Amino acid sequence: MDKTATVLSSLLFLFTFLTTTSLSKDLCNQDDKNTLLKIKESLNNPYHLASWHPETDCCSWYCLECGDATVNHRVTSLTIFSGQISGQIPPEVGDLPYLETLVFRKLTNLTGQIQPTIAKLKNLKYLRLSWTNLTGPIPDFISQLKKLEFLELSFNDLSGSIPSSLSTLPNIMALELSRNKLTGSIPESFGSFPGAVPDLRLSHNQLSGPIPKSLGNLDFNRIDLSRNKLEGDASMLFGANKTSWSIDLSRNMFQFDLSKVELPKTLGVLDLNHNGITGNIPVQWTETPLQFFNVSYNRLCGHIPTGGKLQSFDSYSYSHNKCLCGAPFDNCK
Ligand SMILES: *[C@@H]1O[C@H](CO)[C@@H](O)[C@H](O)[C@H]1NC(C)=O
Ligand SMILES: *[C@@H]1O[C@H](CO)[C@@H](O)[C@H](O)[C@H]1NC(C)=O
Ligand SMILES: *[C@@H]1O[C@H](CO)[C@@H](O)[C@H](O)[C@H]1NC(C)=O
Ligand SMILES: *[C@@H]1O[C@H](CO)[C@@H](O)[C@H](O)[C@H]1NC(C)=O
């Protein structure tokens, strides 16, 4: 009798133990799960999100990550990449308050504006909406996402000007706004960021006017302003005391005298092709570890200094100038 009771109670204990542990394996927060199911519905239940099934733990669904126990396993990352997805960014993304990473990438049928509810995501560190067909302006509210470290809005159809408030982001490490239809000038405020100087990529837009002098105060590791309609002086971006690795100003309308421009001793990539740059190439340029170099289609003249890396580039890097001479061209007369 006693024995049977013991066996029965042990079995009962085991059963309870097994069911509670299997339930506690469902880590997903119920609010997050409801929100995610609404997002799936908003996107017309795409096959890409087939694993998002109400009967399973949402922390096991594709395109998602949950945080650890310190944030009660709330959803911290949503990455929708390269699927058959049509429609707009669902407003419900704003209801995932622990989100640190939000990515919609390589979705050509994703249209509409940058979803305003993203403003609610105060924990966001990494926002990447790229290779989609988003339109409209870059919203000012992005500057309220104070934890943002990486902002990529490249390869879209965004228009309007760049909000100057982006320079107030205290932790930003990279601002990538290339390949849109942005107009206006580079904001004066971009001459000072509260934290480290971010990598700046603004290429393939319709930005115009001179670049603010204040940008000369910064030591960019990478700056790409290529393929815009920028004009005037860009010499302030250079300097022997800077530590830049890559500077691309190609295909603009810059006009300045190169003769006194010193390059950072760290510069590996310099592209100035298709501008109206005058003067000669300084001897100091032989002191840089250049790996890519292009000054073609400008109005440069004079002797190409001998030494360093300058002769490791062929004539295509120097072609279509006014009167450059010396290797890789013929000797100067
Ligand atoms: C985009 O939409 C078009 C028209 O509805 C469709 O033919 C195409 O397959 C969609 N592409 C993707 C990647 O979803
Ligand atoms: C999306 O963008 C691609 C590439 O820019 C373009 O070919 C396509 O027509 C666009 N689709 C829509 C629906 O706007
Ligand atoms: C570069 O740094 C040196 C030594 O720190 C300083 O003497 C010089 O004035 C600086 N040059 C420029 C152009 O800032
Ligand atoms: C330099 O730019 C010109 C003009 O775009 C291009 O034709 C040439 O191939 C480029 N040279 C190199 C080495 O990329």
TrEMBL record:
Annotated Leucine-rich repeat-containing N-terminal plant-type domain residues: 30-66
- Pfam families in the cross-refs: LRR_1, LRRNT_2
Q: Which domain of life is it from?
A: Eukaryota
Q: What is its main location?
A: other
Q: Which residues form the signal peptide?
A: 1-24
Key words of the record: Leucine-rich repeat, Repeat, Signal
Where in the cell?
Answer: Cell envelope
The UniProt record lists the keyword Repeat: yes
Family to which the UniProt record says this protein belongs: Belongs to the polygalacturonase-inhibiting protein family.
Q: What is this protein called?
A: Leucine-rich repeat-containing N-terminal plant-type domain-containing protein
